[in-house]
């Protein structure tokens, strides 16, 4: 494990283990300021529950609303029209704060993607990954230019454009970290970032260092935990020091906290644990 990773993995900083193994920060001294995640900004990416969304989308959305989730990140419409999916969200008592589209879909018909987003009522339109063919300095420079173009269109439509990272975006090519090209070659008025905390920690980078270098560029977090062996883990049961990251809320620009787990064994249990952790965590 690298020294940089150790700096932001959980250490013995007053965490308390409660029933079921969930870790939450220990009680602070009376004069120590405490902050919490706003309950109406706790969401979940529907990719986490994709298997049960396929068979019972309305039941799943209603279950998430019943757990206390205020928002969801949309990951496809599961065969429904945008209008029907919006109806299901409303019935379930959750609102779509963002939608994941794709590089190809945005290139093919950006206006159509924005129309879908408008029907869903989202604030953020997110491209979640880039094709492997772009994994060069020239490719990411091209992607930054496209993001700028799409960001201007999103702003004109009353929405905001974001890019979601994976670990491959932190590859160093010709001496440059590819992700940094996207941040540095885009205008924050039009392009910002949904920071997946697992996928920045996994390759050994520190989210806080990015907040310091690029302040207020990260309005959405994918809050995803990491097991000691580096695999995915339910939120609060892993090793990432979320209070340290969340404490930089002013510097990061964070607004939405979106739970995600790529391969949950029990999607609804994972969802419940995620909501409970974010509702309790103090920083």
TrEMBL record:
The keyword Acetylation does not apply. Pfam families: AP_endonuc_2. PROSITE patterns: TAT. The keyword Ribonucleoprotein does not apply. Residues 1-30 form the signal peptide. Residues 107-280 form the Xylose isomerase-like TIM barrel domain. Keywords: Signal. PANTHER family: HYDROXYPYRUVATE ISOMERASE, INOSOSE DEHYDRATASE. This is Tat (Twin-arginine translocation) pathway signal sequence. The lineage of its organism: Bacteria, Bacillati, Actinomycetota, Actinomycetes, Pseudonocardiales.
């Amino acid at each position: 494990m690298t020294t940089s990773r150790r700096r932001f993995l959980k250490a013995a900083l007053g965490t308390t283990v409660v029933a079921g193994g969930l870790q939450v920060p220990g009680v602070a001294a009376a004069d120590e300021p405490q902050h919490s995640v706003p309950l109406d900004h706790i969401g979940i990416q529907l990719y986490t529950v994709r298997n049960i969304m396929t068979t019972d989308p309305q039941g799943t959305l209603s279950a998430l609303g019943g757990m206390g989730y205020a928002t969801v990140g949309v990951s496809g419409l599961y065969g429904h029209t945008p209008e029907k999916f919006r109806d299901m969200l409303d019935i379930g008592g959750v609102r779509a704060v963002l939608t994941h589209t794709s590089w190809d879909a945005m290139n093919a018909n950006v206006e159509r993607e924005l129309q879908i987003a408008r029907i869903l009522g989202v604030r953020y339109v997110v491209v979640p990954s880039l094709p492997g063919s772009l994994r060069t300095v020239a490719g990411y420079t091209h992607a930054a230019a496209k993001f700028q173009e799409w960001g201007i269109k999103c702003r004109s439509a009353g929405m905001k454009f974001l890019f979601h990272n994976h670990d491959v975006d932190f590859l160093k090519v010709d001496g440059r970290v590819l992700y940094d090209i996207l941040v540095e070659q885009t205008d924050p008025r039009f392009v910002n970032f949904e920071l997946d905390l697992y996928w920045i920690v996994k390759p050994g980078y520190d989210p806080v260092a990015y907040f310091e270098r690029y302040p207020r560029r990260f309005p959405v977090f994918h809050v995803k935990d990491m097991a000691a062996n580096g695999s995915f883990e339910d939120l609060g049961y892993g090793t990432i020091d979320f209070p340290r990251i969340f404490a930089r809320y002013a510097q990061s620009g964070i607004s939405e906290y979106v739970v995600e787990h790529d391969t949950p064994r029990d999607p609804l249990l994972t969802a419940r644990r995620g909501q409970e952790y974010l509702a309790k965590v103090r920083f």
